[in-house]
From TrEMBL:
Zn(2+) binds at residues 130, 133, 150, 153. ATP binds at residues 10-15, 127, 136-137, 199. It comes from the Bacteria. Signal peptide: none annotated. The gene is adk. Catalyzes the reversible transfer of the terminal phosphate group between ATP and AMP. Plays an important role in cellular energy homeostasis and in adenine nucleotide metabolism. Residues 126-163 are annotated as: LID. This is Adenylate kinase. Residues 30-59 are annotated as: NMP. The lineage of its organism: Bacteria, Bacillati, Bacillota, Clostridia, Eubacteriales. It catalyses: AMP + ATP = 2 ADP. GO terms for molecular function: AMP kinase activity. It comes from Acetobacterium wieringae.
Length: 216
């Protein structure tokens, strides 16, 4: 199964991606993870990526699409994968369509985790992240075992400067504007599934599993 997982910042997309991938034994492909790995390896691509990320800018499509295409050619993707953070606009969705056609494959499921705005604000403002390994926590819903420390590497967690209400609302507006064309693109293909995302983690996961297992 080849899956795309969409959702607003703070909508719980990352948590669901991990659960789905563990349950079905498919790789979790995140553009953020790809970027961080390239930067850490010090590759030419990584150096170029860092010039954008250090300024808070989006990595250009030319680079992003190429890296996703490269990743999807790995052996672990032959039986399926889950894309998280890609595509982020219609142009990338169309590029992914061409990548799939070249492999004689297609995306099977696109899930949108739909969460009310007020819940998203609460989730993001309570979010804490590890600046070293990228693990994410929440002071209420998913706290670390030791307050203020990453469970994975022990690094002190941070509250990102952009995790403030006014900034969050601006980000949601931009997200909705760029995502609607993607939703329409996959709605027309008949593979878009809207998941009610205001429940608990297991409730959201159960909705997704019901759809995936029902299609077998």
């Amino acid at each position: 199964m080849r899956i795309i997982l969409l959702g607003t910042p703070g909508g719980g997309k990352g948590t669901q991606a991990k659960l789905i991938c563990e349950h079905y034994g498919i790789p979790h492909i995140s553009t953020g993870d790809i970027f961080r790995r390239k930067i850490k390896e010090g590759t030419t691509e990584g150096k170029e990526i860092s010039t954008y990320t250090e300024k808070g800018q989006l990595v250009p499509d030319r680079l992003t699409i190429g890296l996703v295409d490269e990743r999807l050619k790995n052996d672990d993707c032959q039986k399926g994968f889950l894309l998280d953070g890609f595509p982020r606009d219609k142009k990338q969705a169309e590029a992914l369509d061409q990548i799939m056609k070249a492999k004689n494959e297609q995306i099977n499921f696109v899930f949108l985790i739909d969460v009310p705005k007020e819940i998203i604000v609460e989730r993001i403002m309570g979010r804490r992240v590890c600046p070293k390994c990228g693990e994410s926590y929440h002071i209420k819903y998913n706290p670390p075992k030791v307050t203020g420390e990453c469970d994975v590497c022990g690094t002190p967690l941070i509250h990102r400067a952009d995790d403030q209400e006014e900034i969050i609302l601006d980000r949601l507006t931009i997200y909705n504007q760029t995502t609607e064309p993607i939703l329409e693109f996959y709605r027309n293909k008949g593979i878009l599934h809207k998941i009610k995302g205001d429940g608990g983690i297991q409730d959201i996961f159960s909705q997704i599993v019901t759809i995936l297992d029902g299609a077998k």
